[in-house]
Specification:
Elements: H1 2-33, H2 37-55, H3 67-88, H4 96-109, H5 122-144, H6 153-179, H7 187-209, H8 214-217, H9 224-231, H10 239-250, H11 262-269, H12 273-284, H13 289-305, H14 315-322, H15 327-338, H16 342-348
Helix pairs in contact: 1-2, 1-7, 2-3, 3-4, 3-5, 5-6, 9-12, 11-12, 13-14
């Protein structure tokens, strides 16, 4: 009896500490994020984690006032997916349709309120269990994709942390569901869940205190080097490396090489890969390696489109010669850079 009471007290205390940390994290991210989508989605994710810490208490009261907290817990998986998109894709912009996903998932989870018996409707029950898993998988894919090309050190560490946290939490949850069942979880497992929540909150809080997320929270439209220099002391970028990098791009036109990776470029320069990432990010202000290559490719393309001698050369040929792998990403990059399609640009030029 004493052991059970001790475990219950530790569980409640750890959850209280985790809730306080998550709420502080939400405030800190909002203050430092300047109102950008990644900031308020990160704050919403932290509030959702705090709500989960409360809702997952063993034998918590399921009164009416708990309904908003339950809705936040259920919809937080959508917020998690949107957060990974905003954090790891600089071109992402939230739309009202994204909010509809959150609302739809919350409404479907409250089927009992509409007189629908989930147990009697196995397709609905299966869908409600699979949809959150699908959103988690989407978030994992977003976290992993583009990892190699990411130049922001804080954001690369965040990818690793998100991936490790998701894999660990999913493995533990699946193990508990399969071996014990969600309705027969012993107090010791609840305590383990509380410890995990507290550790996650503590790691994020430490990261914020040490300004590891400054580069990740920086505006994608602002040079990352400027945002980082304002708050984090860094080692100076070697001008000789920048000069050689510029020569490789403008003279040798290395960006035209098919399948060029940052590892290939680091080998060409005789540098460790992490140092080259830091040089391009902090010295030139780019947050993504493909963005850096595309900047040079677009200069090449615009010169070709404005050249009367190449007016009969197909646009696709020009794009492929500049290093783009296909027409679709080229068109997107060109429109984002100039506000025009390649055909419109050629006509005006």
């Amino acid at each position: 009896m004493i052991g059970t009471s001790l475990i219950g007290g530790l569980d409640t205390g750890l959850r209280g500490a985790a809730i306080a940390l998550f709420l502080l994290i939400a405030v800190a991210v909002l203050r430092r994020g300047g109102g950008r989508p990644v900031a308020w989605l990160g704050a919403a994710l932290s509030v959702g984690a705090a709500a989960y810490a409360l809702c997952s208490l063993p034998d918590h009261l399921r009164s009416l006032w708990f309904t908003p907290l339950t809705a936040i817990c259920v919809g937080n998986v959508v917020v998690f997916w949107l957060f990974t998109r905003a954090a790891f894709d600089d071109s992402f912009r939230p739309t009202p349709w994204h909010a509809m996903w959150w609302l739809l998932l919350v409404i479907c989870s409250r089927t009992a309120s509409f007189g629908i018996d989930i147990a009697a409707n196995w397709p609905l029950a299966a869908a409600l269990r699979l949809v959150p898993v699908a959103f988690v998988l989407l978030a994992v894919v977003q976290t992993v994709s583009g990892w190699r090309e990411d130049l922001v050190e804080g954001r690369r560490r965040l990818r690793l942390f998100v991936l490790a946290a998701v894999v660990l939490h999913s493995a533990v949850s699946a193990g508990v569901d399969i071996s014990i069942g969600p309705d027969h979880v012993p107090p010791a497992v609840h305590l383990l869940n509380a410890v995990a929540l507290s550790l996650i909150a503590a790691v994020i809080a430490v990261a914020l205190l040490h300004a590891d997320l400054v580069g990740f929270l920086a505006d994608s439209g602002q040079p990352a080097a400027v945002a980082i220099r304002e708050e984090v002391p860094t080692e100076p970028v070697d001008p000789a490396v920048l000069s050689e990098l510029e020569r490789l791009m403008t003279v040798e036109r290395l960006y035209r090489r098919e399948g060029l990776t940052i590892g290939d470029l680091a080998t060409k320069l005789g540098l460790p890969e992490h140092r080259l990432r830091r040089t391009i990010n902090r010295g030139l202000g780019f947050r993504n390696f493909n963005e850096y290559l595309n900047r040079h490719r677009l200069v090449d393309v615009k010169q070709a489109l404005a050249d009367p001698a190449q007016r009969d050369v197909p646009i696709l040929t020009i794009a492929l010669d500049a290093g783009f792998q296909s027409l679709s990403p080229f068109n997107r990059a060109f429109k984002a850079d100039t506000g025009m399609t390649p055909t419109e640009f050629r006509r005006q030029a």
